[in-house]
Design a protein that fits this description.
The protein has about 130 residues and is mainly alpha-helical. Helices cover about 40% and strands about 10% of the residues. It contains 4 helices and 2 strands. The longest helix has 23 residues. The mean pLDDT is about 85.
Length: about 130
């Protein structure tokens, strides 16, 4: 991701990487610590559109105001035929990704890593 940002023209010294996590929950905890050290109060949360719901809920539950920036939207602009309603490997893969996110959200809720966010909690300045 660092190389990608640099390819887009973002200077390396302007990027703060969190490299110690393996899960979204760990990433939220590690990011919270980085924010405290830097005295920052908000992050741009960049992740897959499919993963965004769980990521936002996890980060906000960790007390981190976020501005969600979804990537890789899975939108198809084409006409459909009857064959499109038959099972295929691509549809199975998409269903598997969606199922993983629903299951992940449910597990995060069970573990207490996601909670309802109070609308009065701090948000990123200038956003709602």
């Amino acid at each position: 991701m660092l190389q990608f940002l640099m390819d887009l023209g973002v200077p390396k010294e302007q990027v703060l990487l969190e490299e110690g996590s393996a899960t979204t929950w760990e990433n939220a905890r590690e990011t919270r610590q980085l924010l405290r050290e830097k005295r920052w109060d908000c992050v741009l949360l960049v992740t897959s559109a499919l993963h965004m719901r769980r990521a936002v809920a996890t980060f906000r539950s960790a007390g981190i105001p976020v501005i969600p920036v979804a990537t890789d939207h899975e939108v198809v602009y084409r006409s459909f035929t009857g064959l499109d309603y038959l099972p295929d490997a691509e549809a199975l893969a998409a269903s598997s990704r969606a199922f993983k996110e629903y299951l992940g959200f449910w597990i995060y809720e069970l573990r207490g890593w996601i909670r309802e966010v109070n609308p009065e909690e701090p948000t990123c300045k200038g956003t709602r």
